[in-house]
Write a structure and sequence with these properties.
There is one protein chain. The chain is an alpha/beta fold. The protein folds into two domains: about 220 residues, Rossmann fold, CATH 3.40.50; about 210 residues, Glycogen Phosphorylase B (Rossmann fold), CATH 3.40.50.2000. The protein is about 45% helix and about 20% strand. The strands form two sheets. It has a nine-stranded mixed sheet with strand order 3-4-2-1-5-6-7-9-8, with helices on both faces. The model has no long low-confidence stretch (mean pLDDT about 95). The chain binds GDP-alpha-D-glucose. The site of GDP-alpha-D-glucose (GDG) has 21 residues, from strand 10, helix 12 and helix 13.
Length: about 450
């Protein structure tokens, strides 16, 4: 039995190193903790095991669960709806049924490993019903929930079939954490609209308990990124990248995203294409490297996005490129952390222009990597990161002219001002790293 339990869709095993895993793994380890999640492979149920000092409790998903709960309700209904419906959400009854069944499986697995009075921390939009299910089964537990993605405005949330059950599910927690204060406020308004509750600021009374909703902006493992950025081999790779891209004079613009329609990749490429077309920049002086990590490729909307992006990349390179020198390098590949940091070090201008993003860790990683205080960040207003990084060149990604203006402003700004901006952004990110995020959340959860 464990005093601290993390519950997330994926286990911290083979899940690729991410901020969440590196933040929570040490806490779970030092508090004799457990982690409940899915291995990532369908129809697989390994026995519980120990991994780096953490008790791992696997939850099985069948192939149909993956289709209905994961790719369906989680990634085709909730994901687009919570991101301002930038792609139309799809609603299917069978997906909702599977989502509830899988959430129950997670709640049961959690109840079976949590000690009396344990602290349980549930993560993200795949598991919205788990806090409520767990509360009913185990009223002794202290339950926290953190949503990594945006929480939508009330009018949008109201479109969700069985919306009240999702609100009740979250209210099973003692503390519900969001990336931004506005998200917490949206949630509180819904408790009034759907359940007639009377929130007082961050707190609301529900079924004889008090539930708190508050923003805890997530961050990155700054030490890890700074360590990679200081590694001479990574620095050599960064210098080599510059050479490979055609000499020191070429201005390097960079995008790094999962290939996801929320990330604004097609709008960004369109803006870059227009800057080439109108002669503001030329293939001789500028190059854009876009890393688009394959993601959710079985979902139709992701395949369509890939086709749109690849057609546009081909058009731009065809129109503006030359033999041995193209204006846009598109990498539909996953890269190692060290390779990403080498790209961050090499990039003059980092383009982070999502249509909507809970936080966006790439923006913070770029800032953390720039120990030289060089580089410029062009950042969408609609990311959580924009609230903290207001020294970036902020843009509205829906407005191609504004995207172009932001890029041109970054190019035109002198090195002294760029350094001053980067220094302030670095102070912010270094003072609020992911350890502090986890500690803040768990301190309030108590
Ligand atoms: C969700 C929310 C919120 C990317 N490509 C590769 C790779 N990455 C890493 C990045 C970064 C992470 O993946 C992506 O994090 P983001 O925050 O940018 O975006 P989401 O994946 O959508 O994350 C988001 C986050 O959760 C945390 O709460 O910020 O708003 O949507 O760390 O570096 N890593 C490797 N190879 C790649 O090719 N190794």
């Amino acid at each position: 039995m464990n005093q601290f339990v993390v519950v997330a869709n994926r286990l911290p095993v083979d899940a690729g190193p991410g901020g969440l895993v590196s933040a929570l793994q040490p806490i779970a380890r030092s508090s004799g903790g457990a982690w409940v999640g899915w291995t990532g492979n369908p129809d697989e149920r390994p026995e519980p095991f120990e991994h780096e000092g953490v008790h791992i409790q696997p939850v099985e998903l069948t192939g149909e669960d993956v289709d209905h709960y994961y790719e369906g309700q989680s990634n085709s209904t909730i994901w687009p709806l919570f991101h301002d419906a930038v792609e139309p959400p799809v609603h299917r009854r069978a997906w909702r049924v599977a989502y509830e069944a899988v959430n129950r499986r997670f709640a049961e697995a959690t109840a079976s490993v949590a000690a009396e009075g344990a602290t349980v921390w549930v993560h993200d939009y795949q598991l919205l019903l788990v806090p409520g299910m767990l509360r009913r089964a185990r009223p002794d537990l202290r339950i926290g929930f953190f949503l990594h993605i945006p929480f939508p405005p009330v009018e949008l949330f109201m479109q969700l079939p069985r919306r009240t059950e999702f609100v009740r599910g979250l209210l099973g927690a003692d503390l519900v954490g969001f990336q931004q204060p506005l998200a917490a406020q949206n949630f509180m308004r819904l408790t009034t609209q759907l359940l007639g509750l009377h929130p007082q600021g961050e707190r609301v009374a529900y079924e004889g308990r008090t539930v708190t909703a508050r923003a805890f902006p997530i961050s990155i493992d700054v030490a890890e990124i700074e360590g990679l950025a200081a590694d001479p081999e990574v620095q050599r790779d960064a210098a080599q990248l510059r050479k490979d891209l055609g000499g020191d004079r070429r201005l390097l613009l960079l995008g790094v995203d999962r290939l996801d329609y929320t990330k604004g990749i097609d709008q960004r490429i369109e803006a870059y294409g227009e800057l080439l077309a109108d002669g503001t920049i030329s293939n001789d002086e500028a190059v854009l490297v876009q890393v688009a990590t394959p993601s959710r490729m079985r979902v139709a909307q992701y395949q369509q996005l890939r086709e749109r992006v690849e057609r546009e990349v081909g058009r731009i390179n065809g129109e503006f490129g030359d033999v041995g020198r193209v204006p846009l390098h598109y990498l539909f590949q996953s890269r190692t952390r060290a390779e990403l940091v080498a790209l961050y070090l090499a990039a003059d201008i980092m383009l982070v222009t999502p249509l909507r993003d809970g936080m966006n860790l790439v923006a913070k990683e770029y800032v953390a990597a720039r120990r030289d205080e060089g580089g410029a960040l062009v950042l969408s207003e609609f990311t959580g990161a924009a609230s903290e990084l207001d020294d970036a060149f902020l843009v509205n990604p829906y407005d191609v002219d504004d995207l172009k203006r932001g890029i041109v402003a970054a190019i035109a700004t002198g090195p002294e001002e760029l350094t001053a901006r980067m220094r302030r952004m670095r102070e912010r990110v270094r003072a609020h790293d992911v350890d502090r995020w986890a500690r803040d959340f768990l301190d309030v959860l108590g």
